[in-house]
Amino acid sequence: MKPVVLADPLPPLFFEIAGDQFEIRALEADGAVDSGLVSAIVTYGHPLIDGAVMDRFPSLRVISNHGVGVDHIHLPAAAERNIPVGNTPGCLDASTADMTMALLLAVARNVVVGDHFARGPQFTHYDPSVLIGQEVTGSTLGIIGLGRIGAQVAKRAAAFDMKVVYHNRSRRTDLEQSMGVEYRSMPELLAVSDFVSLNCPLTADTRGLIGSKELSMMKRTAILINMARGPVVQTDALLEALKRRTIAAAGLDVTDPEPLPRNHELLTLDNVVIAPHLGSASNGTRRRMMEITVQNLIAGLNGQPLPFRVG
Ligand code: 8YV
After folding, report:
1. Residue 34, phi then psi, degrees to nearest 5
2. Which of 48, 236, 244, 280 would be 92's cystine partner, CB 3.0–4.6 Å?
3. Inside any domain, residue 311
4. Residues with beta carbon inside 6 Å of ligand 1?
């Protein structure tokens, strides 16, 4: 009998890599499954997995998450129940850092507004005075969260001759020495940065980290990039700052809630670029993430140590 695995809707890549060795059932329709038979959960689109969900499946042996961020999985609850949780760190750092730079450049250099303008009726002749953006080269980038992804952002920023300052739970003296990044307190970082890039995980410490007080410490010309998780930024405070232009603009790969309601005011502003959570969405990275997801799943089902265990 094949192991019964619950999952939210999985892409064809999962089946390409895993074949048909599992009986995949829909997580949302778990009432239709004999809960005693479920031995694993795969999370793809960040469904909430808390202790109550875990308790519905007494034979649960592993939770395998496609992605590095596991804020949607209650790790203490999994630990209490001795259920290992796997994730996919490392393989998505470069891709997510690329997307950080893509959003930063798009906002700074009016790529999206420019695209609309270039397609629209106003573009009847070339006018060198329109859509003058912000200088990226030589500017100061403040990275909040200098982990694996943040370090890759710093590396890319160096190629743009940016001065990189950072704030992190712990000092990264290794990167201070090898890359010349400089540690700053949060207020200092916010005050000096032309671009503030959020690359931290969502934890109890980072939830709501950027609110009206923090936004008011930023330069009026500054651009905020959120590649972390939506709730790291207080949405109402950001909306106000963007409307009143107390900061210049924002680039958001993630929002709170995600997606935003279709009539949300943030969607009407021209000084924000929003991507639908595309940080790791490049083909090679997604393949590697799925390979690790399947490896963690198989290891957990076999009672072996997970190649990448987060909790
Ligand atoms: C994925 C992510 O898009 O790794 C993360 O934390 O949010 C993204 O890489 C996501 O996990 C999709 O499964």
Report:
1. -70, 105
2. 280
3. no
4. 44, 66-69, 92, 277, 279-280
